[in-house]
Amino acid sequence: MSKIEGALSRGESTRRIYAAHGVLGYLLSGFGVILPELRQDLGLGRAEVALYPSAFALGLVLVGLCGDGLLRALGAQAMRCAIGTQIGGALLLASGWGRIAGGLGALLFGLGLAIMVNFAPARLRDEHAHLAPLAIAEATGLASASSVLAPLVLGASLSAGKGWHIAFVAPPLVAALPLVVRSMPAAGPQQPPETPPERTTRAPSGFFLLWLDIVLVVSVEFSVLFWAADFLQVGRKLAAGTATSMVALFVSGMASGRLASSFVLRHVPRPGHVLAASAALAIFGYAIFWQIDHAVAAALALFVTGLGVALLYPLTLGAVMASWPDNPNRAAARGALASGCAIGLAPLCLGAIADAVDLRFGMLLTPLILVAFLIRCIVREVKTPALNRGALS
């Protein structure tokens, strides 16, 4: 298939998944931008505060290893469990009860997010078949759109001297209540109970390289999200509230790109071309952000970087799901495992390099990962163009 054809039907189940992604997006973006404040509150080094994202990532890894079985056990309660665990983790993070409580909160938040990123792609794949990449891109686009609010709200609260705790937990808590109270509707298409589809337990050929793509692109996304505010404070001498608010431009770029994903994916014949062009755009934007010491240039560069990063995760996840069509739960679980590995390692490595040398040098890890991914895209496009054309079908 050269293009994605057909209309996407957004029923109640899909709309609720989208809304849940909105809650997730705010919390995730907020978690990223509060790291400098956590570091100051608890008197931690950068490598130490990066252990909070690592605890968060541990939840993704745990669910990624057994997510398909967990989803079967949770059944219709999966989304409620995901949202409730995320909110509980956020409350612990904001409680101010010390390092252990904060670490436990990060772990719970990661568990909740992992359940969601296992549940949602598999459910969307069941409901929308070959249009699932569009639905996944729209869901992550809405998550990115809501994530724009977190840096703005938290930045305003910090600038007003009100701290970050209430601004971090109150908006998603209010938004999550209706989703927790109401049950999830039954899935749309149903398989006949007497002839369940055979589900393979062994990953298909080429799956590991597609899985590695997720590791690379998620490493980029979260390295920028977790460290951009710190870089703006330390390297560009901006106030905490201003630096935190400016991260909204990065997630605004991601939101814009993901919300435009339907148009892009319908009109670009090869998804591989979209991935390569997006990676190149992200490298260009990040180079300006890293090199030019000017607030306006940094702001524009963050937006361009976000725009470039926008479609990398939806497309790589869509390719992973499409490569294992008869076992979407297992594919989604392995996608969560890839995200967990990326979030657990990349920000921690960046923080360790920053402590050993300086933050400016540590921030070079991100474009190196982008260059590696761009090379991977070019090589794949040259060697296996047919695989690229069908990755989203």
From TrEMBL:
**Coiled coil stretches, renumbered:** none
Where would you find the membrane-spanning parts of this chain?
18-38, 50-71, 103-122, 134-158, 207-228, 240-260, 272-292, 298-324, 336-354, 360-379
Protein's UniProt name: MFS transporter
Q: Which family does it belong to?
A: Belongs to the major facilitator superfamily.
Bilayer disposition of the protein: Multi-pass membrane protein
Taxonomic source organism: Pendulispora brunnea
From which domain of life does this come? Bacteria
- Does the entry feature the keyword Membrane, yes or no? yes
Q: Name one Pfam family in it.
A: MFS_1
Q: Where located?
A: Endomembrane system
Q: Identify the taxonomic lineage of the organism of origin.
A: Bacteria, Pseudomonadati, Myxococcota, Myxococcia, Myxococcales
Which keywords does the record carry? Membrane, Transmembrane, Transmembrane helix, Transport
